[in-house]
Specification:
Length: about 425
């Protein structure tokens, strides 16, 4: 028999009706895996005490003892309900009941318990029962909410947790894994298309804008580029991370309506073949982190001044590595759209790194944290002040320090 267990037994023998003697003996039996004995003494402690916090602790510990045994699911759940009935205005039992439901994929029940727990203040506990603190119910809402179809809300909660809470390592890993795997949201949800009927609302009109029937970019990058350059014809682009030849593509409108030339880079072979079959300008299937851009640009233009550079690869660290490879001392770009995906960057660093880098190269941020929505930071839009009219920069500049819905910005709902 271990020394601590022997001590606890002697304390109990000396006063078998003392609630704390029963409690400490039950906890010790629990620690060595003797669940049946632990249940008995913890139950006695809860019955003998007038201390509701001690009783609450004992009941939740007995839930853990019962939940570890095969065939005791109903009894285990009953212990949590007992604890809630005893002290319904504290969160710990609701939180653990949320975990109980999550383990059984009963997502609505898990979410409901988490929502209740989030609103309550924790009470006194005599041992660690696994309640991590105020972030616990929020994490449960994020996880269970995702399975209920609350994708946007879950993403917000995961980001909120990552930015604002000092979590246990295992919980931080869950948050980071979800931020990485869930991403900002499906394109079908986070898509804002410009159509001709919106022309009267367009804040920055340019030659030919009234004839554009629709655009192709996800969040108006193509319309922004044309507005900055006053509807320029025969421009030149470098498109890194081209994706689909039209759907969500930032250069299709420039090529189709304004006769731009340029070259794209895409790693996905299926998308490259689709691009080749549907677009006039060339695309190269390559790893954008390995290209010598000084030589690459020479394959499609002799100019040292290009009109548009797109940087859109995943993850944020990859896009930044590519940015560092661009020969900015040799070439200038009038407009740059840089997808930093700050919302899902678990390091929270690449947006700031990219901004410092581009500012050091003489570029000016015109729209910061452009987004399909108004709640997650997605992309920065830059110009070179020597290649863009100063009055245009002044009119279009909008750096607010918060996510800015690009459509609202372009349609004049947010004044620059």
């Amino acid at each position: 028999m271990n020394q601590l267990l022997n001590t606890r037994l002697l304390e109990y023998i000396s006063n078998p009706r003392d609630a704390f003697a029963n409690f400490h003996l039950g906890v010790e039996y629990m620690s060595i895996g003797q669940r049946a004995s632990a249940i008995s003494y913890l139950l006695r402690a809860a019955e003998l005490t007038d201390d509701m916090d001690l009783a609450y602790t004992c009941i939740i510990l007995n839930y853990k003892n019962l939940d570890s045994q095969i065939g005791r699911t109903h009894s285990a759940q009953g212990q949590l309900l007992h604890a809630i009935a005893l002290q319904p205005d504290r969160p710990e039992a609701y939180y653990i009941l949320s975990l109980f439901y999550e383990a059984r994929k009963e997502w609505q029940e898990a979410y409901t318990m988490a929502c209740i727990a989030e609103k309550l203040k924790p009470g006194k506990l005599y041992v660690n029962i696994g309640y991590p603190g105020t972030y616990g119910p929020i994490l449960q809402k994020a996880v269970s909410g995702w399975y209920l179809g609350y994708g946007t809300a879950s993403r917000k909660l995961f980001k909120h947790l990552h930015m604002n809470y000092d979590m246990r390592p295992e919980h931080r890993q869950v948050v980071e894994n979800n931020l990485t795997s869930l991403g900002p949201g499906p394109a079908s949800v986070a898509w804002t298309t410009y159509t001709q009927d919106k022309h009267n609302q367009l804040q920055f009109k340019f030659p030919g804008s009234d004839r554009i029937e629709r655009n192709f970019s996800q969040i108006y990058q193509d319309i922004f580029t044309l507005a900055v350059l006053n509807g320029k014809q025969n421009g030149i682009y470098l498109e890194i991370g081209s994706g689909d030849p039209f759907y969500g593509n930032n250069t299709a409108l420039l090529e189709q309506n304004y006769n731009w030339t340029g070259k794209a880079i895409e790693f996905n072979t299926e998308l490259v073949e689709r691009y080749k079959g549907q677009r006039r300008n060339p695309v190269e299937c390559a790893d954008a982190t390995t290209i010598n851009y000084s030589e690459f640009i020479k394959t499609f233009t002799d100019s040292k001044d290009l009109d548009y550079l797109q940087l859109d690869c995943d993850p944020s660290s990859t896009t930044y590595r590519i940015l560092e490879r661009i020969p900015f001392d040799e070439y200038r770009f009038a407009v740059i759209t840089y997808e930093h995906d700050h919302f899902i960057d678990i390091t929270n660093s690449y947006r700031d790194k990219s901004r410092q880098f581009l500012m050091s190269k003489g570029y000016e941020l015109v729209l910061g944290d452009a987004s399909p929505t108004d709640w997650y930071s997605y992309e920065d839009w830059w110009v070179h002040p020597e290649l863009v009219d100063q009055d245009t920069i002044k009119a279009m500049k909008c750096v607010r320090g918060t996510a800015t819905k690009a459509e609202d910005y372009m349609l004049g709902k947010i004044k620059s």
